[in-house]
Amino acid sequence: MYEIVYLDVEENNQYEETIKKVVQKCFEEEKLLNSKLIMTITLTTPEQIRKINNQYRNIDKATDVLSFPMFEKQELDEKIENNDFLCEDILGDIVISIEKVKEQAEEYGHSFERELGYMIVHGFYHLMGYDHIEEEDKKIMRPKEENVLRILGIIR
């Protein structure tokens, strides 16, 4: 289902507990528990996420979360509908700046767990092919994100 990679960040049980329950609920909500989809979640520093952002997106700037999906939305939807998972398929990669999570939790006045949970669910739905650039798309993606966090009791 997922693998956690620590890149210049110390391993942390609190991070892992939050990741586990959020990813589990995302997979459950999207009816992917029996799929063989896996994803990698890399927890890193602002410096490392900036390098990754620059290398893969040509944006020389640190950010909070990056998502690198392996499928186009339509292709993934077809695989899910047809249960076309013969072996492990990589859903994609999520990269999260732990320092940015801490800063934003403080800035927005909610818990670290809420902010990390949001970064995970946000990245997950990008891997699923959802976006939020257009208002119409945002109206689909945001309720999915909030639903997962609400069910888990990870509220603002």
The number of helices is 6
Low-confidence spans: none
Mean pLDDT: 94
Q: Hey, roughly how much beta strand do the residues contain?
A: 15-25%
Shape: globular
Largest sheet, in brief, is: 4 strands, mixed
Helices and strands, in N-to-C order? EHEHEHEHHH
Distance between the termini: 27 Å
Number of extended strands:
4
**Strand order in the largest sheet:** 1-2-4-3
Which radius of gyration do the C-alpha atoms yield?
A: 15 Å
Overall structural class, as computed from helix and strand content, comes to alpha/beta
Helix percent band: 40-55%
Q: Could you explain the architecture of this structure?
A:
It is a single chain. The chain has 156 residues and is α/β, with parallel strands linked by helices. Helix content is 53%, strand content 18%. The chain has six helices and four strands. Strands 1-2-4-3 form a four-stranded mixed β-sheet, with helices on both faces. Helix 1 links the parallel strand 1 (2-7) and strand 2 (37-44). Helix 1 packs across helix 5 (112-127), helix 1 crosses helix 6 (135-152) and helix 4 (98-108) packs across helix 5. It is globular. The model has no long low-confidence stretch (mean pLDDT 94).
